[in-house]
Amino acid sequence: MPELPEVETVARTLTPYVVGNVFAWVKPLLASTVHPMSLPLENLAGMRVQAGRRRAKLLLLDLEPTSETAARQDAPPTALVFHLRMTGRLFTPAANAAEGKHTRCVFGLRKPDGSETRLFFDDTRTFGKIFAATPALLEQWTFWRNLGPEPLEIDASALASRLTGTRAIKTALLDQKVIAGIGNIYADEALFRARISPLRKAGDINGKECAKLLDAIKKTLLQSIAQCGSSIRDYRDADGNVGAFQNSFAVYGRGGEKCRKCGRELQKIRLGGRATVFCGHCQK
DNA sequence: AGCGGGACCTGTGGGC
DNA sequence: TGCCCACAGGTCCCGC
Length: 284
Hints:
The radius of gyration is 20 Å and the shape is elongated. The chain starts with a helix and ends in a 6-residue tail after the last strand. It has helices spanning 4-18, 135-140, 142-145, 156-162, 169-174, 184-194, 207-226, and strands at 22-28, 48-55, 58-64, 79-83, 88-91, 103-110, 116-123, 129-133, 267-271, 274-278. 24% of the residues lie in helices and 22% in strands. By secondary structure, the protein is an alpha+beta fold. The model has no long low-confidence stretch (mean pLDDT 97). A hairpin with a 5-residue loop joins strand 6 (103-110) and strand 7 (116-123). The structure holds a DNA duplex.
C-alpha cells in the first residue's frame, strides 16, 4: 500500500490527533505486529507525542518524557515507528468505536485536558510493524541504518552516484538502500514521465537522464502528496479519506490500455517479481 | 552481483 | 452461488 506520498499524508493527517497527548496504555492484539527489536510497548506509558513525521515509508512519532517518566529506570522509547507495509492503517477511531477484525494494536492516549483518545493500528495482511525505539536501537536496525536518501532532498548528481550496476533501473528505484520511499506505483509512473524504460541497466543511465529521472520522481511524488496519495483498495489517511492520485496514473494498472502520449498499447511485464507497465515506444 | 522464486498474510475479483 | 486461481501499494531470504 503506502509509498512515500501515502505515508506523508498519513503523517500529516495523524499528527493533529496525537501531538501533545501522552501514552497511557497499550493493547497489542497480534504479537507479530511488534517488531522483534522493539522495546516493550508498555514502556511507552507516560511519554508525550512531540511530533509526527515520515522517513522513507516509515511513520514516526517523536516522543518526549514527562514527569511520569522522569524517574524511570529503563530507557524509555524516544520514537514510535510504524511500517504500514501493504495494508497498515493508523487512525483515531470514534469514541465509541469497537476494535475491528483487523485491528492489530490499540494505544490509549491522554489529552492535555485529561480526556482519553485512542489510536488504532489496523492491518489486514499483518505485514506491518510497530517499533518502539531509542536512537541507539534505531541504529541497530539494519533496514533503518541502510535507508537511502529522501528523493525530495537530493540532487541529480547524488542520485547518479547511487545508480550503478547492471540491474534494471526500476529494481534499483525500488531498493530502499538506493533511494527511500519509492514503491511499485511511483517507480513506474516516474520512469514513464522520464521516458526511460524500466529495463535499462541502472549504471547505464547517463547524467542528463538521471536529472530527468529525478525531476520526474520529485514531480510525481509532490503531485501525489498534493492529492493525498493514491488509493487502489486499502489505503486511507488518518481521517479515513481516500487519495486522488490514482486518477492521474499514466501507466500503473493500465497494462494493455493505450499510452496517453502515443496511443500505442502499454506493455505489462514482470520485473523483479513486480507487475511493471510501460510504453515501449515512449520509454527508451 | 543480480536474478527468479518463494515466503510472510488476507482479501478481492475474474473466469468458469 | 460457489470454487479456484491470480494478484495486490513491501520486504526478506534462499539458491543459482
